[in-house]
Amino acid sequence: MSMNSQGRPTAPAAESRTVSSGPAALLPAEPLLFEIGDRDHSGVDLPDVEVDDSRLGGLRRKAPLDLPGLTEPEALRHYVRLSRRNYSIDSGMYPLGSCTMKHNPRLNEKMARLPGFADVHPLQPVSTVQGALGIMEQLSHWLMELTNTAAVALSPKAGAHGELCGMMAIKAAHEAKGQGHRKIVLVPESAHGTNPATAAFLGYSVKSIDANENGTVDVEAVVAALSDDVAAIMLTNPNTCGLFESQIIEIAKAVHDAGAYFYCDGANFNAIMGVVRPGDLGIDAMHINLHKTFSTPHGGGGPGSGPVVLSEALAPYAPVPFIRKNGENIGLVEHAEDGSFGRLTAFHGQMGMYVRALTYMLSHGADGLAQAARDAVLNANYIKARLDDLFSAPFDGQPVMHEVLFDDSFLKGTDVSTLDFAKAMIDEGFHPMTMYFPLVVHGAMLIEPTESESLQTLDVFIETMRDLAHDAKAGNVGRFTQAPMRAPLRRLDETRAARQPKLKWSQEDQRAKAAE
């Protein structure tokens, strides 16, 4: 018997397929603390305290605190059980396309927790943080080296924040040249939604550029959209369809000839780091998601980091603060100089993310970073090659980069939707891939394995996907429309949950539910 190390054991089936069955040991729904504990007991013995009302300013509580009393084991077990229901990159593969959910090496974490990095404060005197500034200076150097650019802003706290930074530099450059009338930004229809949102936030009008039949942007379409009112193009490369924009150099030249700037969305830099330098392609600004490319933690609300590299043309407009080295001393330029658009955020960015990213760079070296990018591309193409005969690809006949895009055509006539298919993956112990994005493809299924996953893991994932596809086409609709059946909770109304969240538990709600 072959073993599924992520879900339950798998066994060979027809056509040499490995049939993955779901995680049987998942816990049932975990009650809330309010439902476990009661108001009559406490895990801590405290003496009664007499409090003079005069010390409370009339704010004495008029009703019981109404907190559940639990013993220490009850409280501890509750949170441990909740943690076991989390899905994380440490527990299994994340095939989310466009997200680059890669492994975070523990060496990075160890370095970030070193004294002097973990407890550094942004208001410390510069003379006391020379080591931390040295980290920032080295990180800046290698980010510029990897992208062949002239300057970098470290302070942006995420990818979208980085987009804002780059576009603010572009806006400042136009205004400095008396070109403030340029109010149009070109954005391909396959772009991340933050691209047009960023442009609109800065007061620009967004003009969409259609993708061609190959899923990329034609230089002719860009040229036709250019005018004296265009400020920039915001192009992702590799794009969100997982394809390299083969005409990017020609597009950059056309944009520059029209007096506009080229903003490149660097969310997918993981596919080309150490192999292709975006500056050589003609970009003027590009944000880099440190979590996607250099393995700093992803998700959880932060802390994030989205440094922006700038070309020589935009370097004078970089925001403060930025690093300046004077002999052996490293300083921070805190006040805007001529050209700079000023301060983007209060402080200097996320030190822990800088340490993690630089540790990743130094531990891999130039050859290791390039190998990681090539492995990410190889893994995505391996999945594509193994699933091509059962799944439908909207832009077939060409190799992909870091991710592979399928659509729902192969499900036509099965009464199984993209959402149904994704929910069935949960029963097999896998996190679903990205669904319904990019919007240029109906029923999109976007899979990005990253370089972190081994051949064994990819094979188990692929065989599970093949088994699901076979079952869908064989008419086993119940396996999909009823899924997930082995998860702690069954299928939820996610739209209603997002729009009408219950943020407070009350006993009355529970009684009403029981009455129903």
TrEMBL record:
Its GO CC terms? Answer: cytosol; glycine cleavage complex
E.C. code: 1.4.4.2
Task: Report the Gene3D superfamilies cross-referenced here.
Answer: 6.20.440.10, Aspartate Aminotransferase, domain 1, Type I PLP-dependent aspartate aminotransferase-like (Major domain)
Catalytic reactions on record? N(6)-[(R)-lipoyl]-L-lysyl-[glycine-cleavage complex H protein] + glycine + H(+) = N(6)-[(R)-S(8)-aminomethyldihydrolipoyl]-L-lysyl-[glycine-cleavage complex H protein] + CO2
Residue span(s) of domain Aminotransferase class V? 178-299
User: According to the UniProt record, what class of enzyme is this?
Assistant: oxidoreductase
* Cited function: The glycine cleavage system catalyzes the degradation of glycine. The P protein binds the alpha-amino group of glycine through its pyridoxal phosphate cofactor; CO(2) is released and the remaining methylamine moiety is then transferred to the lipoamide cofactor of the H protein.
Domain of life the protein comes from: Bacteria
Looking up Pfam families in the UniProt record yields: Aminotran_5, GcvP2_C
For this UniProt entry, the molecular function terms from Gene Ontology, in alphabetical order, are: glycine binding; glycine dehydrogenase (decarboxylating) activity; pyridoxal phosphate binding
Q: NCBIfam families, from UniProt?
A: PRK04366.1 (NF003346)
In which residue ranges is the amino acid composition biased (Basic and acidic residues)?
Answer: 505-516
Q: Which organism is it from?
A: Pelagibacterium luteolum
Instruction: Please provide the record's keywords in A-Z order.
Output: Oxidoreductase, Pyridoxal phosphate
Q: What is this protein called?
A: glycine dehydrogenase (aminomethyl-transferring)
Q: Which residues form the Glycine dehydrogenase C-terminal domain?
A: 373-480
